[in-house]
Amino acid sequence: MTNQVSEFPTERTFQYQHSLPPLPVPSLEASLAKYLDAVRPFATEEEYQVTAAVVKRFGEGIGKDLHQKLLQRARTRRNWLEEWWLNAAYLELRYPSQLNVNFGGPAPYLEHCWPPTEGVQLQRNSISMWHTLQYWDLLRTERLDPHKAGNVVLDMDQFRMLFCTCKVPGVTKDTIINYFKTESEGPCPSHVVVMCKGRFFSFDAVCDGHILTPPELLRQLTHVKQCCEGEPAGDGVAALTSEERTRWAKAREYLIGIDPANKTILETIQSSLFVVSLDDAKPYATAENYTPVTREALTGDPTIRWGDKSYNSISFADGTFGSNCDHAPYDAMVLVTQGYYVDQQLKATDGKWKGSETVRPMPLPEELVFTVDDRVRSDVAHAKQQYFETTQDLQVVCYAFTSFGKAAIKQRKLHPDTFIQLALQLAYYRQHGRLGSCYETAMTRRFYHGRTETMRPCTLEAQNWCHTMLLPAASAEAKRKALLLAFNKHNKLMAEAQNGKGFDRHLLGLYLIAKEEGLPMPDLFTDPLYSKSGGGGNFTLSTSLVGYTTVLGAVAPMVHHGYGFFYRIGDDRIVASCTAWKSSPETDAETLFQNLVTSLHEMLHLATTAQL
Description:
By secondary structure, the protein is of the alpha+beta class. It folds into two domains: 28-86 and 402-609, Chloramphenicol acetyltransferase-like domain (Chloramphenicol Acetyltransferase); 102-393, Choline/Carnitine o-acyltransferase, domain 2 (Chloramphenicol Acetyltransferase), CATH 3.30.559. It has helices spanning 28-39, 45-60, 62-75, 82-91, 97-100, 121-140, 214-228, 245-258, 260-271, 291-299, 332-349, 374-392, 406-411, 416-432, 460-469, 476-498, 504-516, 523-526, 528-532, 589-611, and strands spanning 103-106, 148-149, 152-153, 165-168, 175-178, 191-196, 199-204, 206-207, 210-211, 275-279, 312-316, 321-325, 366-368, 394-401, 438-443, 452-455, 541-547, 563-569, 574-581. Helix 1 (28-39) packs antiparallel against helix 2 (45-60), helix 6 crosses helix 11 (332-349) and helix 14 (416-432) crosses helix 20 (589-611). It comes from Salmo salar. This is Peroxisomal carnitine O-octanoyltransferase. Belongs to the carnitine/choline acetyltransferase family.
């Protein structure tokens, strides 16, 4: 995931797209066997026997027919899942997506050259923007090396969705509009939208074929800030993007109906490279406690971010940064890669601009003013109210665990990601007295337009290990044995999921065929253990390794009684963000993190004594 940028690249960013293998369809027998294995930790013997009979009937009956139809679909598509996944996981959802679907997170610059400092918001923003625009140019000219896992080329299609991309609400289903083009494909929009105090401004980030320099960007940002200083806030139309999707779609239709110029403004925002949000908040985060800036990025002012935009870059008044992104067009690794690129560039230059201070003559930013009436104002007020009610219910914690990191774990010949996942299982088990159904993202980018598969870390082996760890009579040897079995099972399942041999997306495909053909819903999907084990988007723990870089993000929990858990693993630290709904009496993100810390120490101790 490091950004290899070559001066004279031998490989173009998107050159392997057409040679990637199609997404495979696993065998029905294998998927059903894996599914049965996955539900086991959540069932009594009696419940398990009932489910096993349901699965057997499905495999010998309707499941066979559905599987054949799925194979047929896969013959005519290079990725049988792509369109379905986009629709079912994102575009058809009707609840507000800004908090429930988007991911947000802190930028890591505060750890080195840009600690929280007041009075530098615009100056830092101009430099950060310049590096982001350089990244856009790398993608435009295909100078970013294609990602690889060893020698295996990975799909880069999602990188087309970072810039000039936006979701547009529909009454029953949203759509994604993407205006990005590489240089060889033709012209691409080059304007940026800046949001400040509920108002919108736009300017071109390119002048005479050259990207604006930081001093030039600073001039444009200063103009926006001066326009808003001491003036009443704008109408805050952006808050509508935080609404329930159908409600927002109808409000948008009305907005266009009262003045056709509003449609032009919406298109300007949609096609912009990205949105820059000038936020008056001062989160004052530290390298040990990222909580304030993570919370702000995830739940901040809805009038200065466009919830449907693929990238909102948020610049806070204390000189720190964050982001908020729609999850539909791409997965977090795209923004992580871009954020890490900017971080490395800032480190290399100590966060300073060392080029020309000359500011070329160019047009000042243009304000985009929506025509609104009382109904629009009422829609905005309603959107803000529901947004604030929901965000106030979200508990967000984000801390660095600094006792050890990747180096110490690998020294003990253990996989760092599996280490964290098992520590999380133990933390949850300790806190709740049972195991939590768990989703971990597995990446399927070795296939054409591959995105993700579900890896379920809550295995029988993990359950047995957690149980053993809390038995006062269990010997260190018994704990170690159980730990290694849990490790091996996790690593095996993760490797299978990444190689197109998971089962969750396969079952989703079979479910969707039944739904599309108007067939009665097979018992497998209505069986209580299906949702109890996490199926149908019911995972108690929604987790993802954000990577081994300096960049972290955060998401809301998947279910009301659950947790959202993102983490990054550094050489000497593990930084994790954990979210929970305050209105759920059984969850507490702060306690879960503290239990995670206990688990991490216990596991390292166990692995260390094993080496003696």
